[in-house]
Amino acid sequence: MTIVGKGISFLWVLILIVLSANNSRVFGQLIIEVTNALDNGSLDLTVACPNIDGKSYLLHPGGFHEWINTGVATQSGGPPFLCSFQWKGASHMFNMYVPSRDNDCEECHWFAKETGPCRVYNRPNKPTICSKWD
Q1: CB of 84 within 8 A of CB of 93?
Q2: In the chain, what percentage of residues exceed pLDDT 90?
Q3: Signal peptide position in this chain (predicted)?
């Protein structure tokens, strides 16, 4: 193979690595935290993330739960962070970690509201970002 051919092959490998890095990320530790912030302050929230631990958690108003994952590889838009959120009269799903949206997050703090989940950043220059339920 010529030098030009080797250079092009190397470039393709490099491009594939960069594209792969954008769609998946391996974490030493990822913390996902959810707080019950439902608007009227009297609704209990049940959260279940079956691919994290297979358990459901009942969160009273203001209550929270966190999952600590070590060495988890995630794929864009997929498990293990797809969770269900249920309260009286409502049931929703939301993916609490999507690399393209949350790549700056090693501790993702979410507040579950009736209108959708809001992520709070621990940085002074980052605003709270709210999403719609899936």
Answers
A1: yes
A2: 43
A3: 1-28
Give, for 19, the enclosing helix (H) or strand (E): helix 3-23
Whole-number Å distance between alpha carbons of 126 and 118: 13
pTM here is 0.71
Amino acid at 71: G
* Structural contact between residues 86 and 34, judged by C-beta atoms closer than 8 angstroms: no
3-state helix, strand, coil in the chain (%, to 5): 20, 40, 40
**Cα→Cα distances 28→17, 68, 73, 107, Å:** 19, 10, 9, 12
Angle in degrees, CA 117, 128, 34, rounded to 5: 40
Q: What is the pLDDT of residues 60-90, one digit of tens each?
A: 999 999 998 765 554 444 456 899 999 999 9
Higher pLDDT: 122 or 130? It is 130
Which domains are present in the chain? Answer: 26-130 (2.60.40)
Residues 6 or more apart whose Cβ sits within 8 Å of residue 35: 59, 62, 63, 64, 109, 110, 111, 112
